[in-house]
Q: What sequence folds into this?
């Protein structure tokens, strides 16, 4: 923005926002996350795993986030910031829902199937690693782009955690490793949500100040 030396979004970010390569990467991320949601939600049912269910819902939320990001590409900063705010709130709601579900399963639940958990987590990790690798160069953009990068990064971390949980369930025949990882995934979502919401608010304040 003219005359703004400390704006949350600089010329590089604005260029990236309409970068055709970035747009294609978002489409790849959207389709892959949508497919993995279907795979993991089915696997979570047959494997009786709350961490897989949490990861599946995370894939669904990410797919929605990528769709929103595609819609606002090239729009004004305040519109991208508002879209980021919606995504941040969605991430926070997802995190709180997973924590609530994990508490419920801690009271009434059985040990999940570790082979299903581990196998699906490996596939999900491969998908998320590819998406995170493609998005890495855009990690320092505006709040919209930052939220995209945080989603892909957290997903990869979550998949590794699910693999560790599968090993823990296999070794102990207990549901607690599964529930612990579900809580970790929820914590990552809440942390990322706070970061995105804070940055979006900062961008909206900066954009409003430039209009005065």
A:
């Amino acid at each position: 923005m003219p005359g703004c030396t400390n704006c949350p979004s600089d010329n590089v970010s604005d260029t990236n926002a309409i970068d055709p390569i970035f747009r294609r990467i978002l489409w790849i991320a959207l389709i892959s996350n949508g497919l993995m949601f279907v795979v993991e939600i089915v696997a979570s049912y047959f494997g009786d795993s709350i961490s897989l269910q949490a990861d599946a819902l995370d894939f669904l939320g990410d797919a929605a986030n990528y769709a929103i990001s595609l819609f606002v590409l090239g729009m004004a900063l305040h519109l991208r910031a508002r879209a980021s705010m919606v995504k941040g709130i969605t991430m926070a709601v997802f995190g709180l829902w997973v924590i609530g579900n994990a508490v419920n399963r801690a009271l009434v639940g059985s040990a999940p199937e570790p082979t299903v958990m581990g196998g699906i987590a490996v596939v999900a990790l491969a998908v998320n690693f590819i998406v995170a690798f493609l998005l890495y160069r855009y990690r320092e953009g505006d709040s919209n782009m930052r939220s995209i990068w945080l989603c892909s990064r957290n997903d990869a971390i979550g998949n590794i955690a699910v693999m560790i949980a599968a090993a823990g369930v296999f070794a102990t025949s207990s549901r607690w490793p599964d529930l612990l990882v579900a809580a970790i995934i929820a914590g990552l979502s809440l942390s990322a949500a706070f970061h995105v919401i804070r940055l979006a608010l900062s961008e909206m304040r900066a954009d409003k100040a430039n209009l005065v």
Notes: The chain has one domain: 11-211. Residues 11-211 form a domain with the Alpha-lytic protease prodomain-like fold (CATH 1.20.1510.10).
